[in-house]
Request: fold
Amino acid sequence: GSDTQLVAPVKVGRGAFMKTIADARALAGWLAGIAERNGVRTEAVITAMDAPLGRAVGNANEVIESIETLKGRGPADVETLSVRFAARMLVLAGLAPSDADAERRVRQALTSGAGLEKFRAIVEAQGGNPRVIDDYALLPKARAKAEVAAGRSGVVVAIDAEGVGRAAVALGAGRDRVDAAVNPAVGIDVLIPVGTAVKAGDAVLALAYDEDARLVAARKILAEAVEIGDHARPAEPLILETVGGRTA
Reply:
């Protein structure tokens, strides 16, 4: 058999291309099946995407979030999924006998700094500047910042991931057409995540931007993106299903 392996995340929810669990399950089985038939041991993990994953939506800010996760200081949801995917890769590759052993090894790589140093070596091998790992000021920086504030006191019960994604594109962090340029400096940071208490006027989202017109467009999209209620809703699981590859 092949010594290659793949764990493919498939997101489902308001902020993902797949809007229903049935569609996500179909896509996951299709992707895993194609890979398996080509000799790649594969499984797809269906994850929730109703709210933004982690805190950063953009390019430079997502790089920072990824490095912070390797340093053991990343958002809990990003770390949980990253450890899960890495552990499953070890099991599929035959390098760990069980999920528990694989997760132990992955978490050891995080706490020891071995994962961070491997990333540093990868950056250097690809011609990047490894000093960025220790000095985020070396990354592109936007001209200005703005905020989206809570309209009332209560609990943040929802943040529309699709709306946040569209707003990030409006700022220039993604492409709204094939030939559009991407601005790596701009983006959105979630300051108060879902399930957290908030007071009226508190900043919930921080927007890094370069162009005033793009900020106006992003604000229009985000006008209804943050929902505040009186009580927190039950937390949804991050991982909804795992779909194995098909060999026929």
